[in-house]
Amino acid sequence: MAGILSRRIFGFSLSLILINMASIMERADENLLPAVYKEVSEAFDAGPIELGYLTFIRNFVQSVSSPMAGVLALHHDRPVVLAMGTACWALSTAAVGVSQHFNQVAFWRAINGLGLAIVIPALQSFIADSYMDGLRGTGFGLLNLIGSVGGIGGGVLATIMAGHEYWGIPGWRCAFIMMASLSLLIGVLVFLFVVDPRRDPLVAVGADDDTERANLIMKSTVPPSSIWSSSWLAMRSVMKVKTFQIIVLQGIVGSLPWTAMVFFTMWFELIGFDNNSSAALNSLFAIGCAMGSFLGGMIADRLSKYYPDSGRVMCAQFSAFMGIPFSWILLTGIRPSVNNWNAFAATLLLMGLTISWCASCANNPMFAEVVPPKHRTMIYAFDRAFEGSFSSFAAPAVGILTEKIYGYDSKSLKSVGGSAEGALALSRGLFMMTIVPFGLCCLFYSPLYIVFRRDRESAKLVSSKEQQLSSEIDFVGR
């Protein structure tokens, strides 16, 4: 018996390792294109508006396709779903690296969004099922921390490689092809070795009586309904949850600054920083975000023990509010000069440390508590669908503000040593797309102080009824 349990725990641990590796590659893939905006701009004669549309296309397709992950996860093991999405994004990433026309890049970015739409909600629900209440903030924070390693690696690698040629091929193209190959390898490993925690939830971190109850529900002998009817029922159940509606509302505006921040690398290079210095600045920001996400998740877990109905909300509002002063300091308070690298570095590190809490401290753990376990992938999928579809407009909005209102000239990209006028125009566009959304995000969290407790109790009641129904059917079957 002990040997069987040991093998189950080993398989569960290996699954978590591979899931985190998949998260690393996913974050690396997300950071590839923004890290080489300048080189892509020169290769395809594209300005900030066109570059913003590339991010918009991927994010928008990813958003509208996210419910597909919820449908697939209802009827297939999540390792299969993750492998499908990983293969899709890996192949499209390689295709971007060999594209010769801007329209080709745009098409493959859309396919890349489809792959990410399948992967991200499945990853989130996998973590939600792998950690119990009171530990999920730490679990999601750890996922973000490890995933950020991939984001840092992808951004730094692409930024550094972009300044060189390899075998006569531009470095940014080589970075895309190499990252695609690694992603495809991880996808194969996930398919072969990862075990869905829904098969054996009793080995989850912090497993308790609630886990056993979820296990009974998942193994219910209720005859399965059709794919479409069960999917429609899950969608309706998720959409009615007030906590979901409020978090999506704040997320629509709260994710705008993060989408706009894809222009940071380009802004640093316009100031005059070289590829290595720009990569180092982005790395410090990513390190701060990674540490902050993990720290915020742990603090919220501790606080929720004393204030179960409001602790996570307080942490999220603090994090959203901190985006306001740090955006002002970074974009307007520091003089845009290569001599101020240390000031930029310190600000970016502290900014990342404080503004990155919301997903791990509140959004993702709270989602897991307000729906039954079988609907978790669906709620994460719809969160991405609504938030991502609106936030995808942020990147082109920055481009429009920069070019049409603040007078940015795309020819300044070719200036040696940067462009002071271009940097000023881009910083103003970024400022408008960060400080206002952060303030609204902080405000929109407030109703959760009232509705979260009701939704959590309702979810527990539904789970109890499903457990009772499962027990009755089992008794009749005997």
Description of the structure:
With 478 residues, the protein is mostly helical. The chain has one domain (12-202, 231-477): Growth Hormone, Chain: A. The protein has helices spanning 2-35, 37-44, 48-65, 67-75, 78-98, 102-130, 136-161, 171-193, 209-218, 227-239, 242-254, 256-260, 264-271, 275-306, 311-333, 341-355, 358-369, 376-391, 394-405, 420-432, 435-444, 448-477; strands spanning 165-166, 169-170. It has a two-stranded antiparallel ribbon with strand order 1-2. A hairpin with a 2-residue loop joins strand 1 (165-166) and strand 2. It is globular, with a radius of gyration of 22 Å. 56% of the residues are buried. The model is unreliable at 208-225 and 472-476 (pLDDT under 50). Its main location: membrane. Belongs to the major facilitator superfamily. Spinster (TC 2.A.1.49) family. This is Major facilitator superfamily (MFS) profile domain-containing protein. Pfam families: MFS_1.
Short description:
Belongs to the major facilitator superfamily. Spinster (TC 2.A.1.49) family. By secondary structure, this protein is mostly helical.
